Every structure is written in C-alpha cells, then in structure tokens.
Amino acid sequence: MKETSAPYLLDGLADLPPAERRQAVSVVVLRVWETPQVLLGDIPPTQALAAIAAIAAGLPGAQGRGWLDDRLRAAACPQVTSELAGRALCALDVLVGRDSESVPLQLHVSDGEAATALLDDLRDVLMDGLRLGL
Among the four residues 20, 59, 98, 127, which has the most C-beta atoms within 10 Å? Predict the structure, then answer.
C-alpha cells in the first residue's frame, strides 16, 4: 500500500476477503511487535495503527465505542483470537512507547488529548479481549 492515510488503509482492508484481511493485519502487528524498527521505514505508524484498530474493532468490547464508525466496522478483523489480540496489544505498546523496544517516533496530531484517549480505549478493548480468552 503506497497511500498511508487511515481512511485509505481502512478502505483497502474492507475490500479484502475476511481471511485475507485477518492475515494482513496479523502480519503487520507481528512485524511491528517483533521488529519495532519497521515503523521507521517499511510499515508507517498509520498502517500499524489501522491494523491495530481493525483487530480491536473485531472484538465484542468495541461495540458502542465512539471510534467504531462504519468505515472501521467494514474493515474489522473477523474471528479475533486471544493470540491476535495479544499481538495487537504488543504492537500498540511499541507504537506508543510503552515497550522497551519502542522506536523514537514523532507523531503529529492536532488533538493530543483525543489521540491519547483513543489509544487508551483501543488498549482497553484489546485487554478485555484477552481477559475473555477468545
């Protein structure tokens, strides 16, 4: 994917058959988790965040969340397992700097409080998915 805006990425995911969508987001979060340096080149942070959000959107705890709009609902990853939710959580920790292997990223957002709230909410949904033991 050459475009890296979140809407473009979500539309691209939504266009994939469910099994391919699941595989695509799985590969992204695994690469970010195993090799955080990919965020500095191969996998843009927006792509990593879109994959994490698509996984979180596939969990029962995402229902009713303000960030779960029609576009993300269409891109949601089907049949999220606890393993996949755990990998997404690890990738999120790398992305936001909570992991010791995190890379120094400069993410520019217009509303830092809203971005922090969204990232925290994604984390909560992923944690709930792990607790459910999907």
Answer: 59
Q: Which helix (H) or strand (E) holds 56?
A: helix 45-57
Number of H helices, E strands in the chain: 6, 0
Least confident of 6-10, 15-19, 28-32, 61-65: 6-10
Q: Which residues contact 77 (CB under 8 A, 6 or more apart)?
A: 21, 22, 25, 54, 55, 57, 58, 84
3-state secondary structure of 27: helix
In angstroms, rounded to a whole number, what is the distance separating the alpha carbons of residues 49 and 80? 16
Question: In the predicted model, what is the mean pLDDT of residues 32-52?
Answer: 89
Identify whether the C-beta of residue 61 lies closer than 8 Å to the C-beta of residue 128: yes
Residue 10 · residue 74 · CB < 8 Å: yes
Q: Express each pLDDT in 79-112 by its tens digit.
A: 999 999 999 999 999 988 877 777 666 665 556 6
| Token representation of residue 40 | 């500095």
Nearest to 57 by CA among 47, 49, 66, 68: 68
pLDDT score, position 2: 43
